[in-house]
Amino acid sequence: MTRLHVSVTVPDIAQATRFYAAMFGAEPTVERPGYAKWMLDDPRVNFVATEGRDADAQGVAHLGIQADDADELSTLYSRFDAADADVYEEGKTECCYARSEKSWVKDPAGMAWEAFLTSEVIDHFGEGPVTAAPPAEVEASERRLPGCC
């Protein structure tokens, strides 16, 4: 079963962690400096808050759908292909304290959506792709879509 992913950028991670822990009735599953993640079953969502100091960058950073296995990820990739949008296949990544495989699209309003499968929680934030650089034809501004989780 897939899981909705919501990533928000907040001005103060401690304040946001207190607020969301109370709102969800649960402590974060993963806490790191400037980062908190809740893997909730009710509602079934992977909710992330990442601290950011730029007021213009606060709010919803991106949305996504997290797969539970490789078959679900393949289905999500097919849906992205069918959505009539440019797909950026990021591939294997280390990002947001996790090792994942992911691809991205932007909806007609410009909101970034990711489809991903996480294989492991790691101790560092990560910087994105781990196998190869993005293709040269992808503009630098499109290589890193807003946030990652």
TrEMBL record:
Pfam families: Glyoxalase (PF00903). GO terms for biological process: response to cadmium ion. Residues 2-118 form the VOC domain. This is Glyoxalase/bleomycin resistance/dioxygenase family protein. It comes from Pyruvatibacter mobilis. PROSITE patterns: VOC (PS51819). One of its GO terms (molecular function) is dioxygenase activity. Keywords: Dioxygenase, Oxidoreductase.
